[in-house]
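Example 3.2
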Amino acid sequence: MPFCIADFRTDKKILKNIEKLGFECILMPPNKFVSQCCCGHPDISLCRISENEIIYAKGFDENFLKDLKSRGVILYEGRSLLSEKYPYDIKYNAAVIGNYLIHKTVYTDGTVKEKCADRKMSFLNVKQGYSRCSVAVVRRDLAITADDGIFKAVSAAGGINVLKIPPQKSIRLAGCDYGFIGGAGGSIDDKRYALTGDVKRLENGKEIKEFLEKNGVEVICLSDRELVDLGTLMFFTI
């Protein structure tokens, strides 16, 4: 059965609407080594490098990993043990878009680098350590970001249509002034992108919706509230 990995603190209404889409919700347990605000964020402890491959943070919950493996996910253990303070919490927060790995590569986990190099991916080094948080990966040729460095790197690399937006300060993230666009949703498939709230509540919601629809992608709003940064929703159909 298709499934979605979501932060263990995800609102029940959002979980219910994910289930209505035909996905079982798998709650991401907290990573005890990182800060409370992002301890359940999938994109902090998991780096997804393909449709069915994940590199996980060293020392992560074994029962959760066994569950993923039973569902057909190919798992690789990372070399880095995360910790609370930046930059030691960003080791797995790399964004994979098409054939590119985007991250502050001096801090990227060694296994992430190795596996991406094995797949002949090009590395795009950026200043933003929270790279995956900062970019909505819609599909392999489509993305949205508020980060200047990521926008410039991806645009220069070519092959990816990327929308540059201002920071969306209406996105909620506990303990922070506001959250990231990448953490506030996830790609269901090439024709549907889910947001954790109502796109109309974003400062640039109209622009985002028009951009996605112009490129053949339907926006799925999982609640009628403001968006919340949950560290990316990871949908699987393997």
